[in-house]
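Researcher: We're teaching a course module on how sequence relates to structure. For the next exercise, students receive a sequence and then see the predicted structure as tokens, so they can try to spot secondary structure elements on their own. Here is the exercise chain.
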Amino acid sequence: MMNLRTVFALPLLALPLLAVSAANAQLPPVPVPAANPITEPKRVLGKVLFFDEQLSSDNTVACATCHTMRDAGGDARRVRHPGSDNIFNTPDDVFASPGVIRSDSLENYLRDAVFGVLPQVTNRTANSPINAAFAPVLFWDGRARGQFIDPETSLVLIPNGGALESQTVAPPLSTVEMAHEDINWSEVSAKLAASRPLALATNAPADVAAALTGSPDYPELFRRAFGDTTITAARIAMAIATYERTLIADNTPWDRFIAGQTNALTPGQAQGWQIFQNSRCNACHIPPLFTGNGFRNIGVRPPAEDLGLQGVTGLAVDAGKFKVPGLRNVGLKNTFMHNGQFTNLTDLIRFYARAPGAAPQFPQNQDPLMQQVNVPGNAAPALQDFLTNGLTDARVRDGLFPFDAPILYTQRPADRPINLGGGVAGSGGIIPAMIASSPPMIGSLDFKLGLFNALGGASARLSISTSPPVAGRIAPMWIFGSTPTTGAGNGNGLATHHWPLTSKAGGVIPGQTIYAQWFITDPNAVGGEALSNVVSIRFFCGSAGCPATCIGDFNDSGQTTVQDVFDFLSAYFANDLDADVDASLTISVQDVFDFLTAYFEPCP
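Model: And here is the predicted structure for the students to work with:
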């Protein structure tokens, strides 16, 4: 059995051999572990999971949210993280991916010490899954090892070659990237089992659309892929890893040039290819993968800010070393290095060339090879042309199979809640604010609306109306029960209202727009009541349509019984919005007639 240090050293030991043979080599066969063979049902399931925002606790983040195919598998959003000093706008800041708003085990919003109630941001940029199948270890620091251990049973499922599986099981439990606090795999699996596959996405690729014909649920998709309906962490990882093993970008102008098509590269790009080799770029970015999958410290920042590989191996010699990324499709990216420091190839090449005015290099434990990199100033344009155009696979650039993708909920502004402003200041002159990031999809049991910047320890009531606000205020048609704000003091109060959008939930009609606003008891506000901003919310059906409605089966037992009558009447006399079966946002005798009519009719 190789130890961890041996695994990390292997790519570096192989450099001389690869450098000699690469000029005449195409990509090797994709390595596939025997314990996780590629099958079509498993690949399609993995693709569905990769793009499903329901894999996150709050339905806002999918794997594909941070790994966008047309951005070479990276994340173009580039949001600021304060770095190791936790102070924004200082030299150690990182530009990486936003994840989820911090929340507790009950999915109530929490105020994060760094990001407040904004989505938290990861501390490194997103690496690409494209061609990641060839890497023996993954993540910038290599912590996703080739030995895949089942996170639920601790059994070794893949002795070697399972880095993709090891990487996949990390984000769904990360409280920064996708999860609420104290989540476990049983909860993730149960949520998937109750979710319609890819319900939040639209414009599904042809292979996914075919697999979802007839609206199979996740248990059925897992049965097709694995033989039975059980959903586990290991199976989720194996499916997504199988899909990622098909994301091979091997059709670039350079590939065709090496195969003998002499005009595949323009004269300028061919010159850039020669410069790439003569400047020693190929010592680390070794063709044909354009990475040796090794780890180097090139002096981007002082190692103390981020130990990189040393944080995994514990060895001082590894301080500040990070995985060498592949350069295929690098021209499609707008963020480079583990900290997202560079936004374009021009500045990146200037860094390597030590050009006047370029970003500085830091010498602590810097790889000696960096002293041998030589990019003459007049060579930079041709080199950049080669990297930008000669290494781009048109299928990745154009989003063609296997790099095609659906449109995620977060990519559709028309389906997202809209801030309309307004509000009335409370204590400290602070206007309370709404948190409205949850998808208002009918059938979602996870929809919620939050409040922050309110007076701590106050009473908050979420109000809704079907009429637009006037002068920044709605005329409530419905007021949910009082919710106490957590925290203490001016502007420190938070609250969360959970509103399962079942097909019978009051006021929930496909395409209907409602207006929501928080009313907070505050003795220092005008009239003793502070108001949040107003948010408009338009309810929409998932990609498979809205779930069937059976008003007579009030308790969703699957059949209409006298218990449904008792449950309806209980909700009616409690003035519960669930009793608003006609979706008028009022509880009236008409709801009784509508319920009884539905009760005596057969359900669809």
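Model: If you want an answer key for the exercise: Residues 1-25 have pLDDT under 50 and may be disordered. The longest helix spans residues 233-244.
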